[in-house]
Fold this sequence. Notes:
Helix content is 28%, strand content 26%. The protein is an alpha/beta fold and 356 residues long.
Amino acid sequence: MRWARSLVALAATLTLALAACTAGPKSPAGAPGRSASVAATPSQAVPAEITLAFAGDVHFAGRTAGLLKDPATAFGRISSALSGADLAMVNLETAVTTGGSPEPKQFLFRAPASTYDAVKAAGVDVVSIANNHTLDYGREGLADTLAAAEAAGVPAVGAGADAAAAYAPWITRVGATRIAFLAFSQVDELWSEWKATESRAGIAMTRDLPRAVAAVRAARQRADVVVAYVHWGTEGDACPPSEARAFAGEMARAGADIVVGTHAHLLLGDGWIGRTFVQYGLGNFLWWRDDAYRNDTGVLRVTLRGATIVETELVPALISRRTGQPELAGGADAARILREYADLRGCTGLAPSPTG
């Protein structure tokens, strides 16, 4: 199947490139939920295709806690949309600990170490832990979260034993392409107490802007593709706030190729800042309670050829009101989600295709 898709994609690329020779550069138009960058010319060698998959917030609490009785099946059939990519990433929005002390906040989440077994079984390669729940059980809980990730062999970015660790990327290679993943939180709750410093464990924060920008610039020197996963936005608001838009611009200028985010509990729009693809909100994904009006979700697929983004696509899904698991949407539901998703770009300030 992947072989066949690659041959079709290659043929399409060459056709577009030949047209560009006579008609000038042109960004191909995409279907709802899709956008694409300019194809390579025929004289260039076409690099191998790489697919990245991103999804939103994951909890194992409430109705989803029991899914960990069998970690291998915890994500359900949506796992195929994650494991089918070369690399997949989600936001793990919980402390992974049985200890620690609760922080002074309303919502507190923690889950056992088998959380990482479930993540691995679903085909997730790296998780963001830069969010407003990783330190729900204090720095003891954070230490447990980091230790469990290391023991399970799951890279966890966006938090660490000090600032150097929290702002460090995970860098991996797919073929000849080096890809760096970083994560940051923009949520203001307890942010100054939770931020990582030179001498204190914590979260990588967008409000420590010089450090965040420096982290992306440093990753740019070591990798061909840089991904920044950001926990930002306003809960319940389908439009990104000015703070998120400003940070996306900083990430683009620093050298990030892909900026994706979560936190608002809703899908938000996507588009481009120059050659940087930005997705402002992937919504809830594997979700702990029944929020009927927040059940639209999906898996964002970003296709690369070498270091160039050639296609983006939202694979629509719905969160089961019974299990909390995301399930691939079809028929009228899929069409509605993609139509509404395309409309969300209107309040993002993002371009529909790459520029510059």
